[in-house]
Amino acid sequence: MRTDSKRRRRSLVAISAVLGGVLVLSACDGGGDDPKGAGEATAKSQAEVDAAAAKDASKAKIVITPKDGATNIALNEGTTVAVTDGTLTQVELKTSEGAAVTGKIAADGKTWKPDAALKRSTKYALSATAKDTEGKEAHENASFTTLSPENTFVGSFVPEADQTVGVGMPVSITFNKPIKDKKAVQAAINVSSSSGQEVVGHWFGEQRLDFRPEEYWKANSTVTLKLALQGVQGAPGIAGVQNKTVNFKIGRSQVSTVDAKTKKMTVTRDGAVLKTIPISAGSPANPTYNGQMVISEKFKETRMNGATVGFTDGDGKGEYDIKDVPHAMRLSNSGTFIHGNYWGPDSVFGSANTSHGCVGLNDKQGANDPSQPAAWFFDNSLIGDVVTVVNSPDKTIKPENGLNGWNLSWADWKAGSAA
């Protein structure tokens, strides 16, 4: 699921913003390409493990329209969910602020659509679950943004109002149109913390502006975002339409360190080691990025298809297509996740790096066993928690690839401000 290593034959499109841009929802696999001494795993090639996982997956195929990361989506008839070789069991559509959108699954269980038109200039997240004739579940997730008038711009932002997040969570604003007058737009946005920390904005291109302090947010503080964009000219003939103030809470301080060399993750909370978990990181051919990565999304189960990130076989199909990856948490836009792995042998965790670049934790299929390491980590993690990878042979992740601006020095961060 990696994007830029010259060691690989795959190539991907450039990474865009977390909101309103292309998110590679599918990620990496775990299992195979095992070095000697990995026990049971040495008998299994990457292809064998991938094939076994795909064979055991649900036959149901879910298609969400629009595609993940789409923008300027029509308010009427632009959003549907369909399934083949199965029936839909649950569909949820919510705005970025958490408001649920009602909809109906058709009597035959094959399609779903919302009951009414969607809101203009709004970011939505959609999740769907289906079962095949054997009762095996498939999952699909997507996010998209609806259209706005041509002469206006809006900013979608994370985190949500009143959300409790981890200490690494930046305020990330993605504008639905390119901003030419960055100074004017940034001057109309203020981010402050009850901790008194200095907070500075940094532009990633013309459509994304992130805010953070020099160090992680202070635990148990409150952060306030004030948007005063009404009438602000973001570009010639394009004005802002938002005046809004939101608060969110910083929870306890949790930073987890994944050591790709020792194949262990140390979870530290409020300065004390909470737990040490055996992991399996990226294989030597597909190592995991180094660096500080922020959890930006959580899915109890989701689909991971290698084709979406350039891992394809000779027929153009994904090297893996696992429709029920448990306890998946996004670490990058390009497809890096930390997630549960039920298809790899138990022996690889803590002893071999076997994935396509993600960090895998031992788990059970169905995501219903709370005793599994992946389930424990999922249940004990917040959006905004930090996962730092060290001792991997790969490069440090780019700061714009996900909510990962912490990989810039404070001087470089401030240099990207237009204020």
UniProtKB/TrEMBL annotation:
Taxonomic path: Bacteria, Bacillati, Actinomycetota, Actinomycetes, Kitasatosporales
Species in which this protein is naturally found: Streptomyces goshikiensis
Annotated keywords: Acyltransferase, Cell shape, Cell wall biogenesis/degradation, Peptidoglycan synthesis, Signal, Transferase
Domain of life from the UniProt record: Bacteria
SUPFAM superfamilies given in the database record: L,D-transpeptidase catalytic domain-like (SSF141523)
InterPro entries documented for this protein: Big_10 (IPR041280), LD-transpeptidase (IPR050979), LD_TPept_cat_dom (IPR005490), Transpep_catalytic_dom (IPR038063)
Cleavable signal peptide: 1-27
Pfam families membership: Big_10 (PF17964), YkuD (PF03734)
Record protein name field: Ig-like domain-containing protein
Statement: the UniProt record of this protein carries the keyword Acyltransferase: yes
Pathway in which this enzyme or protein is active: Cell wall biogenesis; peptidoglycan biosynthesis
Domain L,D-TPase catalytic intervals: 254-390
Active-site residue numbers: 339, 358
